[in-house]
Specification:
The structure holds 2 protein chains of 2 kinds.
Chain A lengths: L23 E4 L2 E4 L13 E2 L12 H9 L8 H14 L5 H7 L10 H20 L1
Antiparallel strand pairs in A: 1-2, 1-3
Chain B lengths: L22 H8 L2 E7 L1 H6 L15 E8 L4 E5 L8 H13 L6 E5 L16 H28 L7 E3 L2 E4 L4 E4 H5 L3 E6 L23 H5 L28 E5 L62 E4 L10
Classes of the chains: A mainly alpha, B alpha+beta.
């Protein structure tokens, strides 16, 4: 539905069985595997894909942090990683490394960029905290 | 179906097609400007240089080309593909260095077979020494061609011209022209071989320096299109068809929907074969697997769900190769 009918190809098709996290979207702010969800199951709910994260030409702090930390190689897992990370930042302002690893453990990166991804989530958390304070 | 070409398996066989696009066709496709093609050395030998120097037809075996448009935009065409090794950025750096332009002024068109020269493969880390050096030579030849254009335009010695930051300047007369001003109205094609010298690594200033991924923003916003995100006009389903034997050619493919009432083009999966219970004890010390469901399986999902057979493509018919590649018995 997302990729073919709506042409929102930023959400990636990886394994098709909920194992890899490349297809992660936020359904009512909760990270969900879109490859396993039927359209009827999200009727009346909000679905946020990677395309909807940028607001008025400004990147979400986590998108910016991914760029700054160069937290991707091929970038195929990036959309899912960012959305899972956004969900984490929504509920935790200052996640520890272990919290980040736990929140993103269902998202696989075959290039192995995990250390930079964790660094990017921490940097984004810092930047969100500083803007909300300032 | 005549326009479908079979996938090539023989890695070391010659290209299935040769790039014999006429110079005019290329400029029709890309627009006017300056075009520099890299000719692989073997082809130079075979063709004894007869086609060198930008004749009406481009040389036979071209491995990359670079186009400076009439608007000054630099576009590099290579059959190498980006698979996370970051060559979209590092090859752009190599070109930027030789052409004296900003990395951001370069567009890389990679492995789009409608536009790029044939390439046998990306081969991971081989791209950097092979294609990197070739693109440097192409970019250097393009720079020289731009210097020639400026020298002609201003009637000055080419030795006094300086190329920097996407412009050619003539310091004695303080004349300057952006690349686009020099290529406007031109349809200049050149080719370059393996024999030209490039900037030695000790004098690199752009390559080897960390720069931001050139298409990073497209990746974090989901705009970048991977192969599986591509769609062609009228495309309903895309897949690679594999012949049953080497060198076989596709005779026909039935791309009509599976049935008159079908709403989808998903060809039915082949029915999974019923699993045979193990006839022999398959565990050490003679234990049997407690139940078929608990047996280890190849995919992580199999224990919780039915094993999925791969989807089937459209029914196809193939003509085997006459020369052979028969299975050894």
């Amino acid at each position: 539905m997302l990729r073919e009918e709506l042409d929102l190809t930023g959400t990636k098709y990886g394994c098709g069985e909920g194992q890899c996290g490349a297809c992660t979207v936020l359904v009512d702010s909760q990270p969900k595997r879109s490859c396993l969800i039927k359209v009827a199951a999200v009727a009346g709910k909000s679905v946020l894909t990677i395309e909807g994260l940028e607001k008025d030409g400004r990147l979400h702090p986590l998108q910016q942090a991914f760029l700054d930390a160069d937290a991707m190689q091929c970038g195929y897992c990036t959309a899912g990683m960012i959305l899972a990370g956004v969900a984490l930042l929504d509920r935790a302002a200052d996640p520890a490394e272990a919290d980040i690893a736990h929140a993103l453990e269902g998202n696989l990166c075959r290039c192995g960029t995990y250390p930079r991804i964790v660094a990017a989530v921490r940097a984004a958390a810092r930047s969100v905290r500083s803007t909300s304070r300032g | 179906m005549a326009d479908l070409s079979p996938e090539r398996y023989e890695l070391f066989a010659g290209p299935a097609y040769r790039f014999e696009v006429g110079r005019r066709d290329v400029f029709k496709l890309l627009g006017g400007g300056l075009l520099v093609a890299f000719v692989v050395p073997a082809a130079l030998g075979q063709e004894s240089g007869a086609r060198r120097g930008g004749g009406e037809a481009l040389p036979g075996e071209v491995s990359a080309w670079l186009h400076v448009g009439e608007d000054g935009r630099v576009t590099v065409y290579t059959g190498k593909t980006e698979i996370g090794q970051n060559i979209r950025t590092s090859l752009a750096q190599a070109v930027a260095e030789e052409l004296r332009v900003a990395v951001s002024a370069i567009t890389m068109v990679m492995a789009d077979t409608a536009l790029t020269p044939f390439d046998m493969g990306t081969f991971g880390s081989r791209t950097t020494p092979v294609m990197g050096a070739q693109l440097r030579k192409v970019a250097q030849a393009a720079r020289e061609a731009l210097v020639d254009l400026a020298a002609q335009l201003w009637g000055v010695e080419r030795g006094a011209l300086v190329v920097a930051e996407g412009r050619v300047t003539h310091p004695p007369t303080r004349r300057a022209a952006a690349f686009g001003e020099l290529t406007r109205g031109q349809k200049l094609a050149r080719s370059v071989g393996d024999d030209s010298a490039i900037t030695p690594p000790t004098r690199w200033t752009v390559a080897g320096q960390p720069v931001a991924k050139v298409n990073g923003r497209d990746i974090v916003t989901g705009r970048h299109r991977y192969t599986s995100d591509l769609s062609r006009p009228g495309m309903i389903h895309g897949r690679v068809l594999r012949p049953p034997s080497f060198g076989a050619t596709l005779k026909s493919a039935d791309t009509s929907p599976p049935s008159a009432t079908a709403t989808s083009w998903a060809w039915p999966r082949p029915r999974a074969r019923p699993r045979r219970a193990p006839s022999k004890p398959s565990l050490r010390n003679g234990r049997r697997w407690p139940s078929p469901r608990a047996r280890p399986c190849s995919t992580p999902c199999a224990r919780t769900r039915k094993r999925r057979a791969p989807t089937r493509g459209p029914p196809t018919r193939w003509v085997p190769s006459r020369k052979g590649w028969r299975r050894r018995r």
